[in-house]
Amino acid sequence: MGTQDQNGKNHEGLFRDFQNRNVKKMWPLVILITVILLVMIFMISSYSRVQKVTVFGNEIVSDQQIKAYSPVKKGTSLFAVWGKTDKLAKSLKLRSMRMQSVQMKLVNFNQVKIKVEEYPTIGYLFVHGGYQPILKSGVIIKGKVLNPKAGFPVLKKFQNPKKLRRTIKQYRRISPPVRAVMNTISFSPTKSNPDRIFIQMSDGNKVYASISTFGDKMDYYPSISSKLKVKSVINLEVGAYSYPISKKQTSTKTTTMQGY
User: Fold this and answer.
1) pTM
2) What's the chief localization of this chain (predicted)?
């Protein structure tokens, strides 16, 4: 009997060892199956998708437009967003010429915030039927507005695209305070100066200049205008001088001309 009991215990011990080895072998598979199930449950749940998209920093481009342009929308899978926000922001920026920079961030696990910085408007191009905004980047927006905002000049009579681009490039060099007192910039060529432009100032003075140099010379305008006693024509084409606008006074132009 003793021998039989001993043999039974040995068999029972071997069986337990067999079970333990099998459990240890199956454990990684159990973990893997559990993880797969959890991932599948997560993927079909609402938590795996973007719940909210918030836009801020924009003034001209509407929230609705930006959300329509955005590759990330409410309901987009988070797997398409994780680790890809910089690339997605770059893609969004390319959708509108008004966007100077775009930042995209995933917050609160499944919400997306989009921060937009727009190129400011620095002037308008007069075209038939309205005005096209000119951005700080130099881009002209094709969409027209009927009433341009005050404080920005209107460019007129530019039929040559190359002349217009050169004018805008120079205009961008002018300091904002001087831009603010420029009402209109008109292309006004002569035989002696095919690049001449005419600038009507908001203080009543008139300026003639050349496209290639007015970007630098206009910053001298405050100093020049402060010395004038009457509304005058300021010529910046070659050097800088002025004479009164009045026809009566203009007849004595050679004696009233002032150098700068």
Assistant:
1) 0.73
2) membrane
